[in-house]
Design goal:
- About 20% of the residues are buried.
- The chain has a 4-stranded antiparallel sheet with strand order 2-3-1-4.
- With about 110 residues, it is α+β, with helices and mostly antiparallel strands.
């Protein structure tokens, strides 16, 4: 079965909410475990441009936010549902989400 690695960046205050949504939508299954993920903290930087509707920050002003980088795995069959769950739980109108195909190792 094809699997993907998902990476999403989210403000720290929303980390648990996004992790839970991802797990409930089918991400993070490894063997007999569910809701598996790995998180590191860092600083996300962005500048909302005209036309944006920022949840944090102001148009034209560079913003720095303490964020979590959440990594997990996702089966292909759940990918669309998990991406929709991330977007529904995430506070940003344009969440940064990376999707990487994984190779079979066994």
């Amino acid at each position: 079965m094809k699997n993907y690695k998902l990476v999403v960046f989210v403000p720290v205050a929303y980390g648990d909410r996004v992790r839970q949504a991802m797990g409930e939508a089918g991400a993070g299954i490894i063997g007999n475990y569910s809701h598996c993920s790995f998180t590191v903290r860092g600083i996300g930087r962005f500048r909302p441009e005209p036309g944006a509707n920022p949840a944090i920050g102001e148009i034209g002003r560079l913003e720095a936010v303490e964020e979590e980088r959440i990594e997990t795995v996702c089966p292909a069959a759940s990918l669309k549902a998990v991406l929709a769950a991330i977007r529904a739980a995430h506070p940003y109108e344009e969440p940064a989400i990376d999707v990487y195909p994984l190779e079979e190792t066994a």
